[in-house]
Amino acid sequence: MAVRAAAVTTGGRPIVSPAHTAGASASWGYVTFWGVGEDGDNRWQLIRCYKSDCFSDDPHRRWTGWDRIRQLRSELYTQTMLAHTRGAIVLSASQQLPTPPPPPTLPGQCVPLAALTDGHPAVAYVRSRGFNHLQLSERYGVGYCLQGDSANRLATGRLIIPVMQRAQFVGWQGRYIGAADWKTVPKYWTGRGGHKSQWLYGLDDAIGMPFVIIVEGATSVWRLGSGAVALLGKSASHWQIELIEKHWRKAIIALDPDAWSAALDVRDLLARRRIGTVLLRLPDGTDPDSVGVDLFWQLAVEAAVSQSVEL
To answer: What is the dotted CATH code of the domain comprising 195-311?
Structure first.
């Protein structure tokens, strides 16, 4: 396989179905192929949408990625061909590939938690959750945003949680300090250009473990330590499932109790990849962070035994 970038083109001009570019800027308006094969025309399975991951499987099973790809193929070979008369649609190298996004940066003026005084609200908050701010700063690089930049004003006054994958900084999440009405204030804020559907928080520390623990948020990773990864949400994207399949053959799914249907969806997605799973249902009103490490592992072992999965 020749690893090169290419785009769907007609007559050398990148094109894409309008259904997948509504509201998109020009730099994200292409359907881009990575790793185009040399074995004929069977290249559609390599398609990726870098704007919204719209060619992955829907976690609620309303469609599969292949359904979307077939829709795109139909549109390309009908509407687009009429619009570009006599222009054969090919999958080939393009001279007008999307401009790569700039490397991620922190959202303004940020400092490590270790640099804050003991009386600072951020330090008081993490301590109230049972964490040591010095350890979070040293091990996970957690910081605090003094002032967000113009694109990330909502980051101001939040914990800043860097996301590392393969020892590279790929983005961050900002966690609101304290409690609020989550219908009006986002608990977590991912800045512009952040693609959390492509991240597994805690991935680097978990690689090499015999199984992986899949949780929702970063605080659960902090509590459980190496071996846990966070989806940074309730559902798993195509990208995240691929990362899990690449590194593990067994998984404990430990989403929050209010995300039980999402946990079932994650189990089904992993089962298609033949990954053994333990589905862990925590007590209502808890999560892997608050339930406590000892009780978590007691419940995990009991679930593994009852589901006949050897960890």
So the answer is: 3.40.1360.10
For residue 97, the model assigns a pLDDT of: 57
Q: Please state at what angle helix 121-128 crosses helix 133-140, rounded to 10 degrees.
A: 90
Residue 73 has pLDDT above 80, yes or no: no
In the chain, which ranges are continuous DSSP H helix? 65-75, 81-83, 121-128, 133-140, 203-206, 218-224, 238-247, 260-272, 293-306
CATH class, domain 102-193, is alpha beta
Q: How far apart are CA 135 and CA 148, in angstroms?
A: 24
Tokens 């199984």 correspond to what residue?
A: 211
pLDDT in tens, 46-58: 566 655 566 666 6
Q: Which residue has the tokens 């035994």?
A: 305
- 10 Å CB burial of residue 84 (0-12, 13-18, 19+) is middle
- As given in the structure block, the two tokens for residue 288 are 């892997």
Q: Would you say 43 and 35 are in contact if contact means Cβ atoms under 8 Å apart? A: no
Q: pTM for the full model?
A: 0.72
Collapsing DSSP to helix, strand or coil, 158 comes out as coil
Residue boundaries of the structural domains of the chain: 5-92, 102-193, 195-311
